[in-house]
Amino acid sequence: MLPKHYTRIVLAERPKTDFTPTTFLRETVAFDLKPGPGEVLVRVDWISLDPAMRGWAGWPMEVVTYIPPVEIGAVMRSFGLGAVVEVGEGCELRTGDIVCGLTGLAEYAVMKEGERLQKIMAPESNPPGVQLLDFLGPLGIAGGFTAYFGLLDVAQIKAGETLVVSGAAGQVGSLVCQIGKLYGAKVIGIAGTDEKCRWLSEELKIDAALNYKSPSFREDFKDAVGYLDVFFDNVGGEILNFAITRLKQGARIALCGAISTYNGLETKGITSYMNLVMQRAKIEGFVVSDYSRRYPEALRDLSKWISEGRIIRRYHIIEGLENAPEALPLLFTGGNTGKLLVTIFLRPRRCYANS
Ligand SMILES: NC(=O)c1ccc[n+]([C@@H]2O[C@H](COP(=O)([O-])OP(=O)(O)OC[C@H]3O[C@@H](n4cnc5c(N)ncnc54)[C@H](OP(=O)(O)O)[C@@H]3O)[C@@H](O)[C@H]2O)c1
């Protein structure tokens, strides 16, 4: 039975720096959602909070993007996972199917069937150890797939190489660290608290974890890393600038993101780039959706590694759609460890992540 009203969160204004309490507006409106031909109505059970949402709300710097910003007054864009509750004419999806895609911050969403709406295997046919919310984390586009293609395809990591990962205790970073270990690299992670560093060293069993807020960070980096073959960068800014001074010949830098710049507060550019010349190094940005044809390959390998217990994942779960706007800034203050999710209709006791 569909409710008489539903709640959604719309973009009220473009943030100038950080998200603020006036960036979003919560609206509870009469239920008027009806799927047309080729569309389905989805009840959104889980929402993924991602750094990209800062850009989708409007970049504070000049950038030509792969997707236009959300219009003011429109439902804020986000990945989500839920169940199909009504099916429009001519659809292959069925009521009860579990799907994942750009649902937005709303309890219900009408979505087009097709490439951008992925049908998830029924829970009983998932490989052992795989759970539904993994499809927004290690088996999701902005999580596992980003880590997988960024490290294996863009950075081309090889056994015996030294890999350094920034944002290492976040969702992408923690997966890059573990895939790096699976491929036989020496892995050093960088994160913003001692607790995160302990988690990386003790549970993810990487070779070393460095707190970039420590006054001795640069010395610690030199001691633990020496010089590096691959830098997987989620953070940009000063950390990237410093990492470029520590390259081996032929090093590769995969630019996944630059979260330190998203609020427009970190303004310094790269000054150490002559080292790219001296070390004949490559620096390459990527956007995961360019790999969409190869998602099945990432899904196959990542699900296998989860089933074999070779990938640990950690979820930071916020309860209730109304709390999503307040939770989003955690990504920028370092308040999350692992994947940041919001549960709407399902409660966390139903989730059984292994960390
Ligand atoms: N290229 C693509 O296709 C693609 C796809 C998905 C994600 N991404 C990018 O991947 C990166 C990681 O995304 P995620 O979803 O995995 O987020 P996340 O790492 O789970 O969360 C963000 C983390 O970044 C760190 N951080 C925030 N501000 C920082 C700063 N000023 N300096 C250093 N670290 C800072 C914080 O950890 P600390 O406590 O360690 O500071 C925070 O917990 C982002 O840059 C995102 O935009 C790119």
From TrEMBL:
What keywords does the record list, in alphabetical order? Oxidoreductase
* Gene3D superfamilies found in the cross-reference section: Medium-chain alcohol dehydrogenases, catalytic domain, NAD(P)-binding Rossmann-like Domain
Keyword GTP-binding in annotation: no
Give the highest taxon in the source lineage.
Answer: Eukaryota
Q: Which GO terms describe its molecular function?
A: oxidoreductase activity, acting on the CH-CH group of donors, NAD or NADP as acceptor
Enoyl reductase (ER) domain residues: 17-342
Which PANTHER family does the UniProt entry name for this protein? ALCOHOL DEHYDROGENASE, ZINC-CONTAINING (AFU_ORTHOLOGUE AFUA_7G04530) (PTHR43205:SF42), PROSTAGLANDIN REDUCTASE (PTHR43205)
| Protein name per its UniProtKB record | Alcohol dehydrogenase
Q: Which organism is it from?
A: Russula ochroleuca
Tell me the classification of the organism that encodes this protein. Eukaryota, Fungi, Dikarya, Basidiomycota, Agaricomycotina
